[in-house]
Amino acid sequence: MGQNNPSIIFYSFQALSGLLSSRMKMDSSFVKSFQIGDLRKSVYFFNNQDGSDLYTGSYTGFGVSSIFTGLSVEEMILIRAECLARKGDQQKAIDEINYLRKFRFSTEEYKDYKLEEIGDVLMVVLEERRKELYMR
User: Fold this and answer.
1) Contact (CB, 8 A) for 124 and 96
2) In sequence order, which residues have a C-beta less than 8 Å from that of residue 28 and are 6 or more positions away?
3) How far apart are the C-alpha atoms of 102 and 45, rounded to whole Å?
4) Angle, CA 1 vertex, CA 80 and CA 47 arms, to 5°
5) For residue 45, is pLDDT > 70?
6) pLDDT tens across 58-85, in order?
7) Helix crossing, 90-101 with 73-86: angle to 10°?
8) For the chain, first and last CA: distance in Å?
9) Left if phi > 0, otherwise alpha if psi is -120 to 50, otherwise beta: which for 2?
10) How far apart, in whole angstroms, are the C-alpha atoms of residue 76 and residue 58?
């Protein structure tokens, strides 16, 4: 999608000339951390013939030849959720994360986080940030 992606607030990218695809191989524990139904796993990663996962997702629209360095709506939602969690407004922080996740999961697999089921809201926010903003 690149520059025409409606989620992009400010578009910029960094070219990755000379980056070998072997360096884009993912830590398998990170890839496994995506829940069933999380569409980011299939959009961001490609399963290689040797069984490893390669990072292929980028808002630039250029695949692995560049990484997005701009600002997106998703990043702003995550910033707001983190600020809310750090100031102690845990329910609003979870509401922000749930809003974002609704667009990241298949309809049949999506389930809201419930505050009473979460021990550390900030940790949940940071984990979502790690998944959503990978390679940014």
Assistant:
1) no
2) 52, 53
3) 20
4) 90
5) yes
6) 777 766 677 788 899 999 999 999 999 9
7) 160
8) 17
9) left
10) 17
